[in-house]
Design goal:
Elements: E1 6-10, H1 17-28, E2 32-34, H2 36-39, E3 40-42, E4 46-47, H3 50-61, E5 66-69, H4 77-82, E6 85-89, H5 93-106, H6 119-130, H7 141-150, E7 155-158, H8 161-169
Parallel strand pairs: 1-5, 1-6, 2-5, 6-7
Antiparallel strand pairs: 3-4
Amino acid sequence: MKQIKKIYVIGPEGSGKSTLAKIISKKLKIKPYDLDDVVWSKRYDKKRTHEMRLKKLKEIINKKSWVIEGIFGGWTEPAFKSSDLVVMLNLDYYLLVKNLLKRSFVGRFNEFEKEKTKLKDTFKVIKHVKKYRIRDHPKSYIGHKKLIDKFKCEFIEIKNKRQLNNFIENLN
């Protein structure tokens, strides 16, 4: 079996992409990259141009190994194409809502973000997450599946905590 050195973790908001990327990174000793840091020059305030995003993404995917995580599709085609493995987190909607509400009250990543997410913003994200499986958009299940199929990516779809724990346990 081919050694896995380039992993792309995708899924809706609240699915645990960042957490899983950190676990994979630590276990396989591969540097993680958050696509939010590629999109935003100043997090959640100033977006980079499409050209700058592609340039930063190409710098990452040209590395020998990486774990990239994010919900983005479309402009992230090079990451799908270059991946040894795409891990799709497709967890239960109610678990996602629970995770998003928790994030809202305790802060997304306490050590990084000083302010807690505003509840009204959380509800906007919850509405977006509800549409993840049913709409045809680059940042949706259908959009992700199209890219996986287009590039014939090796992928695993994780639908519950048991599958997630099994995946983590078998990483090497």
